[in-house]
Amino acid sequence: MGVFSKFYNFFSSDLAIDLGTANTLIYAKGRGIIIREPSIVAIEQKTGKIQAVGREAKAMMGKTPTNITAIRPMKDGVIADFEITEKMLEYFIKKTKTGSQFLKPRIVIGIPSEITQVERRAVKDAALRARASEVFLIEQTMAAAIGAELPITEPGGNMIVDIGGGTTDMAVISLSGIVISKSIRTASDEMDEAIINYIKKKYNLLLGTRTAEQIKIQIGSAYPLDENLEMEIKGRDLAHGIPKTIPVNDNEIRESLEGVIQNIVEAIRSTLEKTPPELSADIVDRGIILSGGGSLLKNMDKRLREETLLPVFITEDPLTSVVLGAGKILDNIELLKKVGQKY
Length: 343
Known about the structure:
The chain has helices at 2-11, 55-60, 82-96, 117-129, 140-147, 188-203, 209-219, 250-273, 277-286, 300-308, 321-330, 333-339, and strands at 15-19, 23-28, 32-38, 41-44, 50-53, 68-71, 74-75, 78-79, 106-111, 134-139, 158-163, 168-174, 177-184, 205-206, 230-237, 243-249, 288-291, 312-314, 341-342.
């Protein structure tokens, strides 16, 4: 059986994809996570030819000559540029080189819970055009819950909050189904924008998105820290048009992020208010589980604990919960039929 399993996995080309606004992760059946790259494509404007994808393209952001543009084809968790997303997916799928190249992969893709039918069709079409044999769409919260190994098939309430790049998705799950869910287009990207706007307004200094992301990672927080943090940041002085370096501290960055954090808090509260009482009792015992890159913001769990008065836990690897969950579903056909929407 072990030999057959290895033989099958070699020829199997099934993939699970977390097609995120910030990053694309791909899990290959029998091999684990094999692609983990930024969702960015660099193209030549005149010819439309792809110059770079993923990490290589991210390194070009804000540094490209006029004839090359670095594009993020996903925005707010959905496809903003269909053609570029299709090319990006095709590039990543080819890069996986799973099993026989004659087999088209069956693909499971995680999607935000409140995207429209048109947006769902765009994700499905992009995957089919990128050589998928069939496509299953699964809500990101369900995938993240499975990836976090929550007991989703049991008759009890499990609450998961996935703070991604473009969307924050939350759901209460019981008996393999989503009882209540909410998706807001406020997440990590909005945090970067908030930092850029704050520094521009306070210091008349223009930052790039990559710099803002570094500030968020290094000194950003959702709740006061035990010790103060400070860093030097570089940008363009808008008054004189020249490069300038200034110091900023964690208090300032926390102030800049407050509006975004508050939006996420209010969405979680709204979801809790609509949760049936029996499941609410389970959440009091089990707490809220956080996943997604945004949950790694310093003291995000502490802030949510203060706001909801509930236990809050971060999954072991928040960045991979969705793709690992989608990967586990590939191995469980019965569960795939229950939680996935086939195309």
